[in-house]
Write a structure and sequence with these properties.
With about 290 residues, the protein is an alpha/beta fold. About 30% of the residues lie in helices and about 35% in strands. Strand 2 and strand 3 form a beta hairpin.
């Protein structure tokens, strides 16, 4: 019987939605889900998604319950999870920082007193970092609202994840040090069978093709044949634009080319200046090199 590739993803939140959309765009035909859904399978039963807490995903992999998972680099680091990191994703970017009250005189972790109370959801990372700075932290583990603890007198310092720093600032805290940068990553359990490893490799290729395609646009245009050399200079595509003849028109041709999404506007203006007409711009779903 063919092995089913079991994929663990966050059960809720923005990251869950992005990952589910990414997997669907990569060609995995999963049915619609709601917040109560615990697992779903593709119609061909070759892939299964398991919805669990983001922080639990590395443990599911270690236990062999899932084969591949989507979680945060910060979580894998905190748990010291025995998994293989196989891919960085382009979302969920944040930083783990050390923060104190705005009025505190400290400018870096080195300035902190030797004995400090630290509130955090990342006790292992916080303890290791502050001990390297010569401190003796008393770790107060919390699961949320870390940034409010200094004003309540529960902690002197917080170690927390932030993407913009706005929540810390709104609670009158200032960042004095950065511990690590984090983003969403793909990890796999160790000891996959050859069959499952092939499925993982195929899935990673598909995911990369979707992520790369999101940064590209497919452009088609009717252009003068005698302008092709100049067009190739600013629209190279992979190697060169694809050129097709037009029925009954010897002076113009049709070009097909993939361009960077942020260069579409300039490319269209340049084509128009060279006599380009009938310009079409389309999204690219996947791009496999």
């Amino acid at each position: 019987m063919e092995d089913v590739l079991k994929i663990a993803i966050p059960n809720k939140g923005r990251m869950s939605e992005k990952i589910y959309s990414l997997l669907t765009s990569a060609g995995l035909n999963f049915p619609a889900k709601d917040e109560r859904t615990l697992q779903v399978s593709t119609k061909d039963k070759k892939h299964k998604i398991i919805f669990v807490r983001t922080a639990d995903i590395p443990r599911f992999l270690e236990a062999g319950v899932a084969d591949i998972g989507f979680t945060g680099f910060d979580i894998v680091t905190e748990l010291k999870a025995d998994v293989d990191k196989i891919m960085d994703l382009d979302f969920g970017n944040c930083e783990m920082v050390v923060a104190v009250k705005e009025e505190d005189p400290y400018e870096s972790a080195k300035d902190l007193p030797e004995n400090i109370n630290v509130a955090t959801s990342f006790p292992n990372i916080a303890k290791e970092f502050l001990e390297k700075e010569g401190k003796k932290p008393k770790i107060i583990e919390v699961t949320g609202a870390t940034e409010i603890t200094p004003r309540l007198g529960l902690s002197d310092v917080v170690v927390d994840i932030t993407s913009s720093g706005s929540t810390l600032k709104s609670n009158k805290l200032k960042i004095i040090d950065k511990i690590l940068e984090s983003s969403a990553i793909v990890v796999a359990r160790k000891g996959l069978s050859n069959e499952l490893q092939k499925k993982v490799d195929t899935l990673i290729v598909a995911l990369k093709s979707v992520l790369e395609a999101r940064e590209k646009k497919y452009l088609m245009a009717n252009v003068p044949k005698d302008k092709l050399d100049e067009i190739k200079s600013f629209l190279p595509g992979f190697t060169a634009p694809t050129v097709m003849t037009m029925m009954g028109d010897e002076k113009n041709v049709v070009i097909h080319v993939v361009v960077d999404a942020d260069k579409v506007f300039d490319s269209v203006e340049h084509l128009k200046s060279l006599g380009g007409q009938g310009i079409l711009i389309m999204t690219v779903d996947q791009m496999v090199r």
